[in-house]
Structure formats: structure tokens, C-alpha cells
């Protein structure tokens, strides 16, 4: 059987797809639809078989990537390894690919551990393509497009803001956080503790993780139907160099959430529910505490009555006003923290809370998600004229198909894999930071799959 890649007749291309997360399925079906034979590898065979169910041309295997010999055996059978497992394991996959001279694609940021392997990657003559999902991924493709256009016309990027949110669609957002979990609640909550660094008016600013929600502010995207708040995310300062915008005095990349989210999270942090300290009363038990009993212990309340719990909360957290206090207390009640329901004990306040949030805040069968991504460029043209330009992606999930998040991570990943297999990418450690890499990816995503960011001059 012969397949077509890059216009040339070849034997079928083969891929090893590592992972069991929500983006694996759209990547898998994309590759099968593009005539790639795929082996899906998970730590447990059952997970791999579940992903391969009803998808022809796939093979499911059990594989531990920490077993170098077993990993080499599977990597050596394919043309490309796609690593959709946690980023800390990517270097193991890359080292195997170096040994077997096989290309690699990931959707994760290029980590220092990957950079340490750059020389070996080059010597092996392979491509290791990273940061090609949604954020990172699609965001880079359109940031580079506008920056390149402005620079070629002799203009300057004076300010660059980029915010992205993976959220429930408005009609599915009726809970105190305005949020639902399509992935680990723990991962999302822990990310809120990361220090944020960014450039603002020529100065580097740093916000400790515990203060992050205090700097969240309403953010106008120009789409007035959405009430978003925005806050900075991780370290934006390297993008001055990565995006080649040394002239920019402000560079902020961050996260969008619905209004009300920061205040709820700030309260939960102040009350100690995101603590990762092991507590004896939260250890797994055949007779677990009720939530109100656990809350009383976490707050050191005099009793588990709602009145005493509310008093304890007020002593640990300052509310802006009575209205905010009523809303947040109602939110804590909705979560179940004052209830007689038994906790799902997981040793720490954070993990015990996550167990309940994942139950109460999961997507229902007919609910859809929303991805909203927007860049805002402040441009100074060669003639001195100034312009504010936005690039916006607003995508809803399909309850009968893929979520917006899964699609917008999985399809760009799949396109990158097929371009690597077709020999359209250079060798080495890559990420989409140049027009040479970005333009073909962006054009194919737009022309073949309708994935596009809408550009507008707004001022």
C-alpha cells in the first residue's frame, strides 16, 4: 500500500503517539485521516485500547517511557514520535529519538532540559518540533504574522498583550467559579500559584503566585457579550527576544476567566484550601469526615455550624463589601463546604477539594466549552501613525464531537506532524517563532481546517 506525502509516492508513514489526555483523540484521528499508521502508547494498555476503539489503522500498546530499552524498541519502528505526555518526560522521548534518529513533535514549551539536548538533536539530523498546540501554538502563528508584517513595512510593535481562556460556554458557566474541568483540577489550581513576570512601560514587574488573583482586572476584548477578567501568566519577558520585538515597552501574556473567578479563588487561598500539607483528618478512611467537619478543622473553627464557619471565614479573609461576602459565601455553600456530605479524602486540603470540584464541575454530556484567544498590538507605523490591532480566535466545542480545546491543540499538532513527515521542516530543535515555520502551518490550518484568527483595527 502506498501513500502520498509531499507529492511523492512512499511507503506508509508511521507514528508513535504517546499519551492518554484529551487532545490525543483528535490528533489520532487527524493522522489516520491523513494516511499515517499510528501506534498509541499509554502506561496502561486499557487506556491505549480505549483511544484506539473504532479508529481503523491504529495499534494500542502499553509502554513505560522510563524504560529506555522498551521505549527505544517502539521509537525505532516509526518515522515520528508525538509526545503528548507530561512535559517532564519529553527529554526521555527525545533522547530515544536521538538514538534511533526519529523526529519528535510536542505541544509543550521548549524546556531547559530540551535545550540541553540541542547539539545532540542537530548531530542526529532530526527535527524536534515543540509548542504547536493552541497556547503555545496558534498564538505564536498569528503573533509572528502581524509582527513580521509591521516590521517589513518599517513599523514598530510598541505593546503586545495576549490573553487566552479555556472556559465553559456562557450557558454552561453557572457555578461560582464560572469554570469547568476538562482536565486535572489540581493542575489548574496549582498553576494559580506560579509567579508572573512581564514587561510594562519598560519595566519588568513580578507578581508572586499568592498575589496573582489580586491583580486580575476586567479586560475588554471588544466583544461586549463576554465579561472577562485577565491576569498575567508565568514569564512573558523572554518573548521580547523570541518574538523579535526589542522595541516593545509592554509585553504581557496571560489568562482569561469570567468575572467573579479571582475573588472566589483568593478566598479559597486565604482559607487554606489549596494547602498541600498532609493532614491526618484528610487521610483516606472508611469513615470520612463530612465536609462541614473538615472545613471546621481546616479553618480552626469553634464548631461545624454554618454560623461559626462563616465567622471563621470572615476572620481569615477580607471581603470588599457585603455583596461580595454574600456571593462568595453562597459559592462556598454551593461547592459543599458547609454540607453533611462526606469528603473524598486525599490527604491534603488541595487534593480533597479537587476531588469534589472535579465531581461538581465536570462538563455534562450536552455542554460545550469555549476557547477565546486574543492578541492586542499597539503599532507605530513608519510614518508615525499609530494603530491598535487585534487578532481574535473564538471557538466553541461540539458536544457530539471534540471540545474546542481538544480540537485547537490536537489539529495544529497533527498538521505539524504531517509537515515534518513530508520533509517540510528544517532539522534541529524548533518552535514556531519564525515566518519560515509559522506561515506554512498557519496557512494549512486556515485553508484546510478553518482554524483562523480574525484581525481587526480597533483604534
Identify the strand order in the major beta sheet. Answer: 5-4-3-6-7-8-17
| Shape label | globular
Tally of individual helices: 16
* Percent of sequence in beta strands: 15-25%
Helix content: 25-40%
- Report the mean per-residue pLDDT as an integer: 95
What Rg is obtained from the alpha carbons, in whole angstroms? 24 Å
Poorly predicted regions: none
**How far is it from the N-terminal to the C-terminal residue, by CA?**
56 Å
| Structural class estimated from helices and strands | alpha/beta
Structure description:
The protein has 459 residues and is α/β, with parallel strands linked by helices. Helix content is 36%, strand content 23%. The chain is built from 16 helices and 18 strands. It has helices spanning 24-33, 45-52, 68-75, 90-100, 112-115, 118-124, 138-152, 185-191, 239-242, 261-270, 291-299, 306-316, 322-335, 349-360, 404-421, 435-449; strands spanning 3-5, 8-10, 13-18, 36-42, 58-62, 80-83, 103-106, 127-129, 156-168, 196-200, 203-207, 217-219, 228-232, 250-258, 369-380, 386-396, 428-430, 454-457. The strands form four sheets. Strands 5-4-3-6-7-8-17 form a seven-stranded parallel sheet, with helices on both faces. Strands 12-13-14-9-15-16-18 form a seven-stranded mixed sheet, covered by helices on one side. The protein has a two-stranded antiparallel ribbon with strand order 1-2. A hairpin with an 8-residue loop joins strand 12 (217-219) and strand 13 (228-232). Helix 1 (24-33) crosses helix 15 (404-421), helix 3 (68-75) crosses helix 4 and helix 7 crosses helix 16 (435-449). 44% of the residues are buried. The model has no long low-confidence stretch (mean pLDDT 95).
